[in-house]
């Protein structure tokens, strides 16, 4: 029989040839795709290169025989089985797991661009010496002044008799100062603070309230300390000072001059400072690299509209089946 110019026998022969060619091509493709596959777990393949990489983590002598290779492959298969279950449960889509994975990536990038560079930081002695010479004021202790006070509390209801008494008694102290009859400055107002002051914390120790630098104003009344710092000579006192809470006299009892730490005393501090500066410089350089490489667009309106929501489990998580 002839069909479209071909005999039936010739058609069968051509179909057979096409089938054979298809089988051959399929075999070749299958071989190419699987020639390096050591094992397949579901859709996950363990390639020869991956297996050899895994062997490299151990001693070479451990894998000179086939049995040990088989044990290692069994361990890798167990790992792939567990991963297959994780993918089946779509754990790779869980936001918390994705965040953990992102943190691993971030850690690796920081190691390459920041931590490895920080490990290379080297501070020379000449760098420390140069910094010390250029920043001596950073290693100075501020001048401190010690004060003693006399204090009378101001009553809420104005009492002229009491106010006259206070001015009279404090005036006596000022007169003693004028005739150089106050105790030695290191004793503050001495015994007079017991009878001429209502400041309970200091009246039994000559009225001395402590030492202050210009940076310590917030540790006591800044307004009064400012007046006290205007006293220049040890032993000087102020006139009567009236404030909202009462009446004061301030006595300058001692001055500690500004002191500078020596180079040897400052070395460790400077070294630490220079290391921190270089670390910050590395971080800033990396941040600039990212900003130059990637664009940023912030929608401030949408940012303002954001609200805190309660964390809930990922709806894509499947219920884990019981094994018993």
Summarize the structure.
With 324 residues, the chain is an alpha+beta fold. Helix content is 49%, strand content 14%. The protein has three domains: 2-93, no CATH class; 94-142 and 262-291, no CATH class; 143-257, Chitinase A, domain 3 (Roll), CATH 3.10.50.40.
Please explain how this structure is put together.
- The chain is α+β, with helices and mostly antiparallel strands and 324 residues long.
- The protein has 3 domains: 2-93, no CATH class; 94-142 and 262-291, no CATH class; 143-257, Chitinase A, domain 3, CATH 3.10.50.40.
- 49% of the residues lie in helices and 14% in strands.
- It has helices at residues 8-34, 48-55, 66-88, 95-118, 125-134, 160-178, 192-195, 222-229, 263-293, 300-304; strands at 2-3, 6-7, 37-41, 44-47, 140-141, 144-153, 208-212, 241-242, 246-256, 259-260.
- A 4-stranded antiparallel β-sheet has the order 7-6-9-8, with helices on one face. Strands 1-2 form a two-stranded antiparallel ribbon.
- Helix 4 (95-118) packs across helix 9 and helix 5 (125-134) packs across helix 9.
- It is elongated, with a radius of gyration of 43 Å.
- The two termini are 68 Å apart.
- Residues 24-33 have low confidence and may be disordered.
């Amino acid at each position: 029989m002839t069909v479209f110019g071909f005999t039936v026998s010739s058609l069968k022969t051509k179909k057979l040839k096409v089938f054979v060619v298809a089988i051959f091509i399929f075999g070749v493709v299958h071989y190419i795709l699987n020639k390096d596959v050591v094992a397949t777990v579901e859709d996950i393949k363990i390639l020869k290169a991956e297996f050899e990489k895994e062997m490299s983590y151990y001693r070479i002598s451990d894998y000179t025989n086939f049995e040990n290779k088989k044990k290692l492959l069994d361990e890798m298969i167990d790992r792939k089985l567990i991963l297959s279950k994780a993918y089946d449960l779509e754990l790779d889509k869980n936001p918390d797991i994705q965040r953990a994975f992102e943190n691993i990536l971030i850690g690796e990038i920081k190691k390459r661009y920041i931590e490895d560079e920080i490990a290379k930081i080297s501070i020379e002695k000449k760098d420390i010496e140069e910094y010390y010479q250029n920043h001596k004021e950073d290693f100075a202790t501020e001048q401190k002044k010690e004060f003693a006070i006399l204090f009378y509390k101001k009553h809420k209801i104005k009492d002229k008799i009491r106010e006259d008494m206070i001015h009279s008694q404090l005036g006596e102290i000022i007169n003693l100062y004028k005739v150089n009859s106050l105790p030695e400055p290191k004793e503050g107002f001495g015994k007079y603070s017991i009878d001429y002051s209502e400041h309970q914390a200091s009246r039994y120790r000559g009225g001395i309230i402590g030492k202050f630098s210009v940076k310590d104003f917030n540790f006591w009344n800044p307004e009064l300390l400012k007046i006290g710092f205007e006293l220049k000579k040890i032993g000087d006192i102020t006139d009567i000072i009236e404030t909202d809470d009462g009446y004061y006299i301030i006595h300058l009892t001692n001055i500690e001059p500004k002191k500078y730490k020596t180079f040897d005393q400052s070395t460790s501090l400077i070294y630490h400072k220079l290391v921190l500066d270089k670390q910050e410089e590395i971080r800033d350089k990396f941040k600039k690299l990212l900003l130059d490489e990637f664009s940023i667009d912030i929608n401030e309106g949408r940012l303002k509209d954001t609200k805190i929501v309660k964390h809930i489990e990922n709806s894509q998580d499947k219920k884990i089946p019981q094994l018993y």
